[in-house]
Amino acid sequence: MGNLLKVLTREIENYPHFFLDFENAQPTDGEREVWNQVNSVLQESESILGGLQSYKGAGQEIRDAIQNPSDHSLQEKAWNSVCPLVIKLKRFYSFSLKLEKALQSLLESLTCPPLTPTQHLEREQALAKQFAEILHFTLRFDELKMRNPAIQNDFSYYRRTISRNQINNMNVSLGKNLFLNLISGLKLFYPSAFVMITCDFVQNKTLPLENTTDCLSTMASVCKVMLETPEYSSRFSSEDTLLFCMRVMVGVIILYDHVHPNGAFNKSSKIDMKGCIKVLKDQPADNVEGLLNALKFTTKHLNDETTPKNIRTMLQ
């Protein structure tokens, strides 16, 4: 555990390696089974993000249908435009369920006895990296989703059309089946999307809460030190890794804030929130605006009375 302590206490002189190797970590034999399971899910993540980035929506068709309610051809055109898009939304939601299971598997591996979470994170670099990749993907997805109002607009039209039985002779079977499959996944497309993973994770009683919060707070602390310490941040081979590290730090803070009864902002929190926010604010504004918004709008305890005023002020 000496390497980790060096990072956390910033005794980094003559220390040649990162603690969390987000660029080159490879699975050991002991990690490989879980790593392979999670990797099969993560391989789909870039395709999901690509699908979200290219999502254009059926705004014009929907407007035409709404403005001409008696024109059946326009109603059918809007419906036929929306259904393929809702199929894409269903794919996004289905992927979130697979990602949820992958996260659960990783956290079970990274918190199980007899090792402490800190020992797991140091020894199981490849699993720690995958955990980070899930958090990174989730925040990237949420940022893209929030910038695309067409997603909610399309789904709202789709839902209203079915609920009002306005589809007549259109593809009724497809529409209703999609509706039944998607209605429970609406949270994915709202500001609380990140919380969907959190809630299911908390309900898993096999994961000791203290081990879990220790794992999350340790990752946040290590990311903060790596970002604020030139001797570490200068070793990233790509600027993308810097942003990756920032997203991971924010992701574990959000999880910690929802998992821990007192949240991440309380004075008793094991996360140095003032330091984490300062690290973000020291970066170019364009790189961190979405991350600061995530801390403001997807955390649970920011506005609690126990949150120090200077922390709230920093996020205003």
From TrEMBL:
Topology of this chain in the membrane: Lipid-anchor
UniProt KW keywords: Lipoprotein, Membrane
Subcellular location: Membrane
Keyword RNA-binding attributed: no
Main location, first listed in the record: membrane
Superkingdom of origin organism: Eukaryota
GO molecular function, one term: small GTPase binding
GO annotations of cellular component type: membrane
Start and end residues of each CYRIA/CYRIB Rac1 binding domain: 18-312
InterPro entries with a match to the protein in the record: CYRI, CYRIA/CYRIB_Rac1-bd
GO BP terms: regulation of actin filament polymerization; regulation of T cell differentiation; thymus development
Family note: Belongs to the CYRI family.
Protein name: Family with sequence similarity 49 member A
